[in-house]
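W.,

You were right to be curious about this one. When I first looked at the sequence I had no strong expectations either way, so I just let the prediction run and decided to look at it fresh. Below is the sequence, 343 residues in total, followed by the output.
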Amino acid sequence: MVGKQAQITALETQTADPSLWDDPRQAQGVLQRLTRLKTEVAQWTALEGQLGGLTELIDLAVAEDDGSLRADLTAELAGAKAELDQRELALLLNGRYDDGDTFLSIQAGMGGTDAQDWAEMLLRMYTRWAEGRGYAVNLVEQSAGDEAGIKSATLEVRGAYAYGYARAEAGVHRLIRLSPFNAAHTRQTSFARIEVMPEVDDAPEVVIKPDDLRVDVFRSGGHGGQGVNTTDSAVRLTHLPTGLVVTCQNERSQLQNRETALRVLRGRLLERELQRQVEARARLRGAYRENAFGSQMRTYYLHPATLVKDHRTDCETSNVQAVLDGQLDRFIEAYLRWNISEG
């Protein structure tokens, strides 16, 4: 708590500096960080008070041997345990960028039209999950499928610990079902990759030089409202040293699309570097596993039985529809606990 209070004091000093407001986006980030830290400290303080009240209630129940007090005590203990579990989970979100916003990218893999339909199902699932947590969700780009679904999409998810929670979903997701896209209605296996990137304005691990970028502009396509296709506002950035390509077409302004695309690229480069560091440590431990199509981290079975199973944590549920409707927290919490044990 002392460390958190020190961070709060430092951030409050920053907000008092008039020059901070020369960059509104940076100022907004500082305010968000300050609000999150204050909320976290308040939650721990409230839990401390709750546990203190429980101690007094226990002493009173023992002294008076009152059955009604014991009933109240049971309810209070259950509430305190639930809150303690949430505070414990929050401690697992201790990565450098865990408390910030995130970009979540979906890419259809092997499986043709079924895979593109699967990618769209995942887009819906993550949108519902984010909205269910009270996060702000913005569609940065979407590439329509050839016959159905999408080839790719990128979401911007803004809210407390959005990256820390969402990074549990990174990897290859496999769907097994009876295909609705062939006449024989045969069993089909489809794949999609989820990439999760921290959204940061600046990171020491990432340096993007202007000469390393190729910028292409083109006319926005797809859904977007009246006038979206009338100007060349969409932007495609190519990072020449790595070959990474980022597209943004959701904003009306070419400048806004370029700024958003640059943030996505910065997040992608940062995530690549963070993953390189994780893999380097895993190789030293002899525990490295390649994250490639075919090495799925979770499978969604719709045939012959219904089941969602996470192959990292063994967490599973038969309520597939609830998961596809965005109820992912049990899988995310299981991953966070598993990841600590693996680290």
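Here's what jumped out at me. Residues 2-92 form a domain with the Methane Monooxygenase Hydroxylase; Chain G, domain 1 fold (CATH 1.20.58.410). And, maybe more interesting for your project: The chain has eight helices and eleven strands.

Coffee later to discuss?

I.
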